[in-house]
Design brief:
heterodimer; A: 223 residues; alpha+beta; four-stranded antiparallel beta sheet; 13 strands; globular; B: 615 residues; 20-stranded antiparallel beta sheet; 25% strand; Lipoprotein (chain A)
């Protein structure tokens, strides 16, 4: 009884006192022939005390909290799916439940293979926009597509203000590396590295959700 | 003497509806209108947001015929009662509402009910279709009687019993029927068209009809019984045998200063009668293998709710049979470790919970309790096994030695919210956006906790520590040991140490080190010390401190603009369970309320509802 009282009391205070936030990092290394490596990292370590407490609960404010098994299950599914996707190889994952940092990476033969992954992920989410990446070696450009979905904005507004807080301080970062030099970028928030080999774009999650900023970017490469 | 004097006083105030409650009632709930009105007048209540809302609803429901709570015609100056009675398989629930006049109540009635109202002398009533509910009133009292007849239920289920019997008979004659059936099949005659089947169906139909008639007759009879009982209650014809002759009840309400009270008598009878007899068969019936009577016989519960000037107090009394009290008493008769109070500083205290059990008492009592509960004299294997198991348990366990490891008294304190440095993973990028993971720190506000329990077996603790150190599960820090194997994300470190006869487990290294070195500065009021040491269990919540230390943005959105009100209007909550005395265990919940800004604690709760209701 005492232990339960302690757990609930600590939980109550932890939930109340720590604000949630997370970072998503999308990193692509693109070779001249269109093949490359993609790595997606979800870093929730800034909220780890809150997450450690939350994961002891089934749900908070009606939202289900995934357990460690749920997350393991998700990874198993994702890897199974990636293994079945043509052109995808060298699948790697890391799970750090102490710091709540999770990564998934793989090599691809062409960006089309990556689009297929996204297509399956996005399927049934009320959108038809499946193209995320395109690479045109003859025209020398790489494009990150992104369409502001009204649905996401609407879903966000449907959340209670306490639940929206989870996006405060959250960010989405894209890093793209090329073997050719970068000539220009279309997204004004993106930065080109001094060595011209990489492009960096970091946007806070709220701006992305509300459509104030986006991650769409056309990166022109030198011929 | 005092009790009988009180009886006379109450029975003399003829308007008090308590005289309408029979002495055989098993449960009585009362709300003392007069006491409540002294705390808050009807006008004051009507002007509160809550009161206004009630009046609005009343006007809506009566198409504007009644506008105020006063119009309803209730005698708010008198007591409202509910009682529950069980007699010969009939359960009666009755609400007694004092009236100044029945006019207001009549305005709330729908035409359908007005049409079927019967008036006999000064009483009027109507019954529902099935007859088990009676609404009855005169100019002084409004009464709702709801009765349940377990006998009717028994008949309904009787159908299945008959059906089963018939099936058994069918099975017996089966070999003969098989021959008949096969010859019939050859001739192409279906069993369902056979004469035997038709005859059987006919018989069942007749039986069903008989049962229905029997049920309907019983239902009519029951309807009359309920009505007769209602008339008996309203007239209070058993005045000489009203609940006021039940000394247990009279004792439980004391001087009648409370605003509300609950009294429940004899759980064993309630348990037996409230569960319909048709359910008391088969494997689900605990009476088959357990002596439930032993647990509940003679058990009664009384609770009183009192709204004082600066606190609301709920007092409870749990009375049990001598036999059960003898078994329970040693369990709750632990000796609290007075050292606990030396390691608490109330300036930092958010709350605590103390538990004062006796491991020795529990280990000695459980085998006895189990043997006693399963002692049904049935000679069944289960009952014999439980008795044997309990005996072996007692022989193998040395209660005194076991109590040396964990004596049974423990204390949990939650201390001030402190800022803790928490690490997290971030990324640092170079000019070419190559990045590396770096560990950064940030501060978070987290409460500290300290859990203590008594253990006189130092050798066991020392051995465990030695194993922990060897296996790298503990890290030594000047007599305090840090648990190294806790998940990285646990928001606090956990430390363990022992001093004298007490084991400490907590999250504050500072406190643990101070305890070990004997430099801990304790501060605890006499009242807290008394509550912790004298009671079987004591809980304390420092409401004001908790509310004031939680950042405003962490409150639910709807409450944020009310945080100031909550901060200045939240006080302490205390819960104490006393040790068993005689065969009674008493408990109390004290909700302290600020005396400034509120006339008394009842007004405080109405004010609180108003504030939480918003605009």
């Amino acid at each position: 009884m005492l232990k339960r009282a302690l757990v609930y009391f600590t939980l109550f205070l932890c939930i109340s006192l720590s604000a949630g936030c997370f970072d998503i990092l999308e990193e692509i290394q693109l070779n001249k022939d269109g093949s490359g490596t993609i790595m997606v990292t979800l870093n929730m370590s800034k909220s780890k005390t809150k997450l450690a407490s939350l994961m002891l609960l089934d749900s908070v404010n009606g939202h289900k909290i995934p357990s460690e098994e749920d997350i393991n299950e998700f990874f198993k599914d994702a890897i199974y799916h990636l293994e079945k996707t043509p052109g995808i190889s060298n699948i790697k994952k890391t799970k750090d439940f102490s710091n709540y940092v999770f990564t998934l990476s793989c090599d691809f033969n062409s960006v089309e293979n990556v689009n297929i992954i996204f297509k399956d992920l996005i399927k049934n989410k009320g959108t038809n926009n499946y193209t995320n990446l395109s690479y045109n070696p003859s025209a020398h450009y790489f494009k990150r597509h992104f369409t502001q979905e009204e649905l996401i904005k609407k879903s966000f507004y449907k959340l209670k203000s306490e639940d929206r807080k989870v996006f405060d301080g959250a960010s989405y970062t894209c890093i793209y590396r090329f073997q050719d030099k970068v000539r220009a970028v279309s997204n004004t928030d993106a930065k080109i590295a001094p060595n011209k080999g990489a492009v960096f774009l970091k946007i806070d999650a709220l701006s992305l959700i509300l459509g104030e900023k986006n991650i769409q970017n056309k990166i022109e490469l030198t011929k | 003497m005092a009790v009988s004097a009180f009886c006379i006083t109450v029975s003399l105030t003829a308007q008090d509806l308590v005289s309408k409650i029979p002495s055989t009632a098993s449960a009585v709930v009362s709300i003392n209108g007069k006491n409540l009105l002294q705390l808050m007048s009807l006008d004051e209540f009507s002007n509160s947001k809550f009161g206004t809302l009630l009046e609005k609803e009343l006007a809506k429901d009566t198409n504007g015929k009644l506008e105020t709570l006063e119009d309803l015609g209730l005698d708010y100056d008198n007591s409202f009662y509910y009682f529950f009675e069980m007699k010969e398989g009939v359960l009666t629930n009755c609400f007694l509402v004092p009236l100044n006049s029945s006019k207001g109540f009549l305005s709330t009635l729908r035409k359908r009910n007005l049409d079927k109202t019967i008036t006999e002398g000064d009483i009027s009533y109507f019954q529902n279709y099935s007859g088990d509910t009676v609404t009855m009133w005169n100019e002084n009292v409004l009464m709702f009687v709801m009765a349940i007849d377990n006998k009717i239920e028994e008949d309904v289920y009787g159908y299945y019993d008959d059906y089963q019997t018939e099936t058994v008979i069918e099975e017996i004659v089966e070999p003969v029927e098989e021959v008949t059936e096969s010859s019939e099949e050859i001739q192409g005659v279906d069993y369902y068209n056979s004469d035997a089947y038709k005859k059987e169906q006919e018989q069942r139909k007749i039986k069903r009809q008989e049962r229905r008639e029997k049920r309907e007759a019983r239902s009519k009879e029951f309807s009359k019984e309920v009505l007769a009982n209602a008339k008996k209650i309203i007239s209070g014809t058993y005045a000489s045998k009203s609940i006021l002759t039940n000394t247990n009840y009279v004792k439980s309400i004391g001087k009648g200063k409370q605003e509300a009270s609950v009294w429940v008598n004899d759980f064993a009878t309630i348990y037996e009668q409230a569960i319909p007899s048709y359910m008391l068969g088969g494997d689900f019936n605990p009476y088959n293998y357990m002596n439930i009577d032993k647990l509940y016989k003679g058990v009664s519960v009384a609770a009183k709710l009192d709204f004082d000037k600066d606190q609301a107090v709920l007092k409870t009394e749990y009375m049990m049979s001598d036999e059960i009290a003898d078994l329970y008493r040693p369990m709750y008769n632990g000796k609290i470790n007075k050292n606990f109070t030396k390691y608490v500083n109330e300036d930092n205290l958010l709350g605590y919970m103390s538990l004062n059990l006796s491991t020795e008492g529990v280990l000695k009592a459980y085998p006895k309790l189990a043997t006693s509960l399963f002692d049904t004299n049935s000679g069944e294997t289960l009952n014999e096994s439980v008795a044997l198991g309990a005996k072996i348990f007692s022989m193998l366990i040395d209660e005194e030695e076991a109590a040396k490891i964990i004596r049974g008294d423990m204390f949990l304190a939650l201390t001030n919210l402190s800022e803790k440095e928490v690490t997290y993973t971030d990324y640092e990028y170079d000019a070419d956006f190559n990045y590396k993971e770096v560990e950064k720190t940030k501060t978070e506000t987290i409460p500290d906790f300290m859990y203590m329990f008594t253990s006189e077996e130092q050798e066991i603790f020392n051995r465990l520590v030695r194993i922990g150190l060897k296996e790298n599960k503990l890290e030594a820090m000047n007599g305090v040991y840090r648990l190294t194997d806790v998940p990285n994300s646990t928001p606090f470190n956990m430390y363990i140490t022992q001093k004298d006869n007490t084991v400490f487990f907590g999250s504050s290294l500072k406190d643990m080190t101070a305890i070990k070195s004997g430099t801990f500065v304790a501060k605890l009021s006499g009242e807290h010390k008394k509550n912790i040491t004298k009671n079987a269990s004591s809980i304390y919540v420092n409401g004001k401190k908790i509310v004031s230390e939680i950042p405003v943005e962490s409150f639910p959105r709807d409450l944020r603009d009310k945080v100031d009100f909550l901060t200045s209007n939240t006080e302490d909550i205390k819960v104490n369970f006393h040790k068993i005395k005689g065969n009674t265990m008493k408990g109390e919940l004290i909700w302290e309320t600020p005396s400034e800004g509120h006339k008394n604690s009842f007004v405080y709760f109405i004010d609180m509802i108003d504030v939480l209701m918003g605009k």
